[in-house]
Amino acid sequence: MADMEKLVEQLSKLSVLEAAELVKALEEKWGVSAAAPVAMVAAGGAAAAAAEPVEEKTEFDVVIKDAGPKKIEVIKVIRALTNLGLVEAKTMAETAGAKVLSAVGKEAAADAKKKLEEAGGVVELA
After folding, report:
1. Phi and psi for 58 in degrees, rounded to 5?
2. How does pLDDT run across 17-76, given as a tens digit for each residue?
3. Beta strands across the sheet bearing 122-125
4. 46: left (phi over 0), alpha (psi -120 to 50) or beta
5. DSSP codes of every residue in the chain
6. Domains detected in the chain
7. Chain centroid, CA 35 distance in Å
8. Are residues 68 and 122 in contact, defined by beta-carbon separation less than 8 angstroms?
9. Cα torsion for 45, 51, 52, 53, to the nearest 10°?
């Protein structure tokens, strides 16, 4: 252990230029590269940065995919949610991919989806 401490002490006295020369000499002697671990650490850092949580979506569109077997019930719910007239609500219920609500909050979107699904519609939040 005493030899290790002496070695650390000697290495601590090296200048930056001497340390760089030592690194080159060791790379040549052992056939390795000191840059590889640095690249791996940098890649690991990038992976950690990529793993950071993504901002949670705050606005949702309520999209009707299918009115289902109880179209009249779905039309009633659409009218209640949107204040549309009967003809407009019927057209919306019959149009797959129609946006019932646009850019609403998470709770409002979930509530609308629940009501439409209870009426028999197939709904998705986008």
Report:
1. -110, -20
2. 888 888 888 888 887 776 655 444 455 555 555 555 656 778 888 999 988 888 999 999
3. 98-104, 60-66, 122-125
4. alpha
5. -HHHHHHHHHHHT--HHHHHHHHHHHHHHHT--THHHHHHHHHHHHHHHHTSPPPPP--EEEEEEE--S-HHHHHHHHHHHH---HHHHHHHHHSTTEEEEEEE-HHHHHHHHHHHHHTT-EEEE-
6. 2-50 (no CATH), 60-125 (3.30.1390.10)
7. 32
8. yes
9. 180
Q: Tell me which residue of 64, 62, 58, 60 sits closest to 101, measured CA to CA.
A: 62
**Mean pLDDT value across residues 3-26:** 83
CA atoms within 13 A on the CB side of 10: 7
At 48, the amino acid letter reads A
One-letter amino acid for residue 40 of the chain: M
d(CA 47, CA 67): 44
Q: Is the Cβ–Cβ distance between 99 and 89 less than 8 Å?
A: no
